Amino acid sequence: MGIKDLRLSHILNPKSGKSVIIPIDHGLIMGNIAGLQDPLGTLENLIRLGIDATLISPGIAKITTDIFSSKDAPGRILTIDLPLSSTIPGESGNIIGHKIIANLEFALRNAIDVVKVLLPWGEKDSVQMESIEVVATVANNCDKWNIPLMVEPVFWTSHTSKEKKTSANLIGHAARIALELGADVLKIPYTGNILEFKELLNNLKVPVFVLGGAKMDSIEDILKIAKESIEAGAKGIVFGRNVWQNSKMESLINALKEIVHENASVDEVIKKHNLF
């Protein structure tokens, strides 16, 4: 096992080898978003519920060291870039610039397990090249210091149609380019089809985690995406807003853990945790 593999193992459940990751780094881009007005309180609650890992910003990493001091604390993935989508805090639009906001020395000093960057697509030419440069630069530095890099291709721009944003073909292209740029781990959308997603994962050859994305219509949809992703071969899920903005957060996390780690069915966990 290499050093990168060792660090990556810190975000995985030791029994199942998979992971329920609940990110709380949304405030970096979205500001004081509902559900994360008290990020430390939310984080403490998530740790109590036994999540396997979380995504955090540099600022939150600095003030939560004590929370992660126990032996069974979840792994930490550090978001080290910022694609700015508005000059007004809390508002959004097309990305106007993409910069690295923390270096690998910060990650090493704070005993971070994995670092993560976004790879937005469909932006204006100059921003698109900035994003590619961010990923390539961080990938090279991660190789130098043996820190695993998670890359998240995203399709936020208004220039990309809704159909294209959910296109299995487009997701496949974006994931492949992220791999070519040096990603050790990928965080991508589920394509909606188990067989095609399984083929994509088999071809990528690196651990793939499925993102939750925008607010889903129902708890059943959340659980179904988790179940089908794991069945297709994903190493885990990275669900944020769909979890900590849900009034049944505790029951939902327990249900997700049983699906990811114990191969439970969607119907089974819905009934067991009263998630109707």
UniProtKB/TrEMBL annotation:
Top EC category: lyase
Query: According to the UniProt entry, what is the EC number of this protein?
Result: 4.1.2.13
**Claim: Transferase is one of the keywords in the record:** no
What keyword terms does UniProt attach to this protein? Lyase
InterPro entries noted in UniProt: Aldolase_TIM, DeoC/FbaB/LacD_aldolase, DeoC/FbaB_aldolase, FbaB-like
Which PANTHER family does the UniProt record give? 3-HYDROXY-5-PHOSPHONOOXYPENTANE-2,4-DIONE THIOLASE, FRUCTOSE-BISPHOSPHATE ALDOLASE CLASS 1
Protein name according to UniProt: Fructose-bisphosphate aldolase
**Pfam assignment, any one:** DeoC
Identify a single GO molecular function assigned to this protein.
fructose-bisphosphate aldolase activity
